[in-house]
Backbone:
């Protein structure tokens, strides 16, 4: 089966600042990431997803999802949004809730009814139609929220931390729902944690491309195979001059750290011989200051 692909770059961030309730969430983030399934993580990812979900504001720069501007909120009609743990109204059936959701988007009753049937069927959730929203387990609530984000005509779905906090059968249930959604939609999903001990690893592993973001920079970007490695990986934030940077990279390579990227942001692999102690000794010898060392998934 041919995977869906966005008409434009799936996520394009241009020197973006995002604020929520006058508090800074990210500043001067600048990157593009594309593909049918993209995963983003870190504090910068939280800011981007909050802006897409309209719980935060793009106060400077630009965020585009499949070419649609988040700052001007023109993305609303084109991008399905599944916020984390949205509270479903009690006293309604799943079918009634979805009908209300699609009607709120401006669909006629007939079109909204068709959208409900289509979203439930395509996600394998038809059995939930008559269930009360109050009776749903956490994974089922999230599945219904994803169903509400299956906007007719849209080719993009944004899911906020869909697997966060789930385990076992609940996790596998929602993984199946996401797999079905990915058959007809490009998926942009965030994760709260990206280490091997959490279910969210599945979001990373199934992504086409992954970006790990701080509030102001891209720590790492690439294929998930480069992130989920046999050896632990560290993201580094380093302060050094350009000449020192060249020497630092060369010595890291000689010491077996397999560095990727360039200061101020790069990643290294750890091993029995390439340890954090050796890393700090190399930095000290080269005159580079390691400001942050952040463990990445392994």
Residues:
């Amino acid at each position: 089966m041919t995977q869906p692909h966005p008409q434009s770059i799936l996520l394009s961030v241009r020197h973006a600042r995002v604020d929520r309730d006058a508090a800074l969430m990210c500043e001067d983030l600048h990157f593009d990431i594309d593909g049918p399934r993209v995963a983003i993580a870190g504090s910068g990812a939280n800011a981007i997803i909050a802006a897409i979900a309209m719980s935060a504001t793009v106060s400077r720069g630009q965020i585009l999802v499949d070419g649609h501007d988040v700052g001007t909120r023109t993305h609303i009609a084109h991008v399905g949004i599944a916020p984390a743990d949205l509270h479903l109204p009690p006293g309604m059936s799943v079918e009634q809730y979805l009908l209300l959701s699609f009607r709120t988007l401006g669909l006629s009753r007939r079109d909204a009814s068709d959208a409900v049937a289509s979203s439930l069927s395509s996600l394998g959730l038809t059995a939930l139609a008559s269930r009360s929203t109050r009776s749903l387990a956490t994974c089922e609530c999230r599945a219904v929220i994803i169903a509400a984000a299956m906007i007719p005509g849209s080719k993009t779905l944004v899911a906020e931390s869909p697997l966060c906090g789930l385990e076992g059968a609940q996790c596998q249930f929602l993984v199946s729902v996401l797999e079905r959604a990915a058959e007809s939609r490009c998926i942009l999903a965030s994760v709260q944690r990206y280490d091997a001990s959490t279910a969210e690893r599945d979001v990373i592993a199934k992504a086409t491309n992954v970006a790990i973001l701080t509030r102001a920079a891209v720590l790492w970007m690439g294929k998930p195979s480069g992130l989920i490695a046999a050896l632990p990986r560290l993201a580094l934030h380093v302060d050094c001059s350009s000449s020192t940077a060249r020497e630092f990279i060369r010595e890291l390579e000689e010491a077996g750290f397999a560095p990727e990227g360039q200061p101020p942001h790069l990643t290294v692999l750890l091993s029995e011989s390439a340890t954090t102690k050796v890393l700090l000794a190399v930095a000290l010898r080269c005159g580079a200051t390691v400001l942050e060392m952040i463990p990445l998934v392994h």
Remarks:
- The two ends are 30 Å apart (CA to CA).
- The first strand starts at residue 11 and ends at 20.
- The chain has two domains: 11-225, 233-296.
